[in-house]
Amino acid sequence: MKRACETEVRPAGHSLPHRYAGKTVIAVGAHPDDLEIGIGGTLARLQRDGANVVMIVVSIPKDYEVRLAEAKRGAEILGCELKLLVEDGPKRIEDMKTCELVGLLDAAIRDYKPAALLTHSSVDFHNDHLLVYNACLPTQRLAYFDFFSYHPTNCRPVPIAFHPRAYVDVTETIDAKMHSITAHASQFGGRGLDTEMYREHAHMQGRIIGVPYAEGLDVVRMVLT
Predict the structure, then answer these.
(1) How far apart (Å, rounded) are the C-alpha atoms in residues 28 and 105?
(2) Could you give the 3-state DSSP secondary structure of residue 207?
(3) pTM for this model (two decimals)
(4) How far apart are the first and last CA of the chain?
(5) Residue 12 — pLDDT band, cuts 50, 70, 90?
């Protein structure tokens, strides 16, 4: 008889990466480094297991050339395609009209035809992140795809009321996540900020599902057939 404390082997078909193998997944972040911090392990896992993963960065507000190079390096480490939504130089998201931002995201949905979209959360405290989340919501009218939100991203730990409803085992991709975060040297190394809290957070999330490391997602919409 199996004891309650023994680790259960889950069928591969139940995994998030298996769900999207051979399909396109897009991840939308307001700025460079948001996706690496929030779901770098998940994106690397999806890509490794056969999904075509596109990291969409909405804009670069300043230090354009430096941060663009860092974004390219981060995506390369995770093995993902990088798409910069606003390509004509530095731009603040809060200076964009809502219809402009929604239109750009609509175009991405039409171009990539994703099976899933991952973006910021409705409980994020960064206004640019909230603007991106709210602009992603209406894209659901265009097609039927799964929609997930990831943990609010921040450079220092703060209390956040985020409650995941799905978890991705990123034990095998946690090192890629951490490596991709350190690619953004202008945001961390140059400011004396420690990145180990992201590994610690993934470890805490992993304990919830009985694995060494995990990333939690909120489910906005999931299409079951």
Answers:
(1) 9
(2) helix
(3) 0.91
(4) 34
(5) low
161 vs 150: CA distance, rounded Å:
12
**Burial label, 214 (beta-carbon count in 10 A; 0-12, 13-18, 19+):** buried
Task: Collect all residues with Cβ–Cβ distance below 8 Å to 9 and sequence separation of at least 6.
Answer: none
- Strand pairing partners for 52? 24
Separation of alpha carbons 85 and 189, rounded Å: 26
Burial of 169 (0-12, 13-18, 19+ CB in 10 A): buried
Distance of CA 201 to the CA centre of its chain: 15
Query: Which residues lie below 8 Å from residue 162, measured CB to CB, with a gap of 6+?
Result: 121, 123, 151, 152, 216, 218
Q: Give CA angle at 200 (29, 62), nearest 5°.
A: 30
Give Cα 177 distance to the centre of its chain: 11
∠ CA(112), CA(217), CA(27), 5° rounding?
A: 25
Give CA–CA dist 124/68, Å, rounded.
Answer: 24
Q: Do residues 51 and 23 make contact, with C-beta atoms less than 8 angstroms apart?
A: yes
Which tokens sit at 89?
Answer: 């130089």
Q: What is the pLDDT of residues 44-61, one digit of tens each?
A: 999 999 999 999 999 999
Look up tokens 């979209």; give the residue.
117
Helix/strand/coil for 179: helix
Axis-axis angle for helices 34-48, 174-182 (nearest 10):
140
Q: Which residues of 45-84 are buried (b: 16+ CB within 10 A; e: fewer)?
A: bbbebebbbbbbbbbbbeeeebbbebbbbbbebbebbbbb
